[in-house]
Amino acid sequence: MTIVVQYPHHAASGAPRPLSAEALWAVAAQVRRQAMAGHEGFALGAEALVAAAREVRANGRAVAVAWDLAHPVHDEAGVPVLGVCETDPDLPDTALVSVNARMVAGRPDLAASTAAHELGHVLFDIPAALGAPARRYRSVTADPDALLDRTAAASERRANEFMGALLAPPVPLHLRLLLHARAEGLRTVHAAHRGRQGSRVLAAGNPPDALAGVVAAVAGDFGVSDRFVRVRLARYRLVEGGMLP
Known about the structure:
There is one protein chain. This protein is an alpha/beta fold. The protein contains 9 helices and 8 strands. It has a 6-stranded mixed β-sheet. Strand 2 (about 55-60) and strand 3 (about 60-70) form a beta hairpin. Helix 7 (about 170-185) crosses helix 8. The radius of gyration is 18 Å and the shape is globular. It starts with a strand and ends in a 10-residue tail after the last helix.
């Protein structure tokens, strides 16, 4: 299957122009619509994502994606890392993506997060890298914390923001949050947010145990970790005051 996306970019190099969070969410929505076609539920697992993204076409530039989810992965120093996205001048128009099978063993949420993060590099970084014939591109994802880090390099932040919105987009996440919150009798309030317009957000001061249960339920819906959900709730401003306690 080929994933097709469009986003503002420099025509000569293929490099993306500066993209706001909302612009990245829009690209993630393009990918999610295509990858989730024919799938039920809300979770987009690594296997489904890989099956959908054997090739991508970003702003008209076709890139074959060679995925490897079956082997260990390490950096240049031999240290195990979570994932790698790279190119090889001997394989033109191809992105090589590896996810460390050992590090994600038993963690389908981590496998999905890593695959989605690396796909962000394929979509936003590889088109420009392939424009330089003798250049080798390599991006290393060191550990699980790197997937939620907003202080890293710009390309890593971009891949993380794309990944977050791909696996847990703002409107579906908001709706599932409200469904579980109402089932638990949690308070909600009107406040500015980036989810489903006209809907309320979680009020501050709800019981921590009940909040934790709601977060866990939402995480289960989307096949991600509780921490992942907490980060996305903050990014979408779906909790009064910005973050859960």
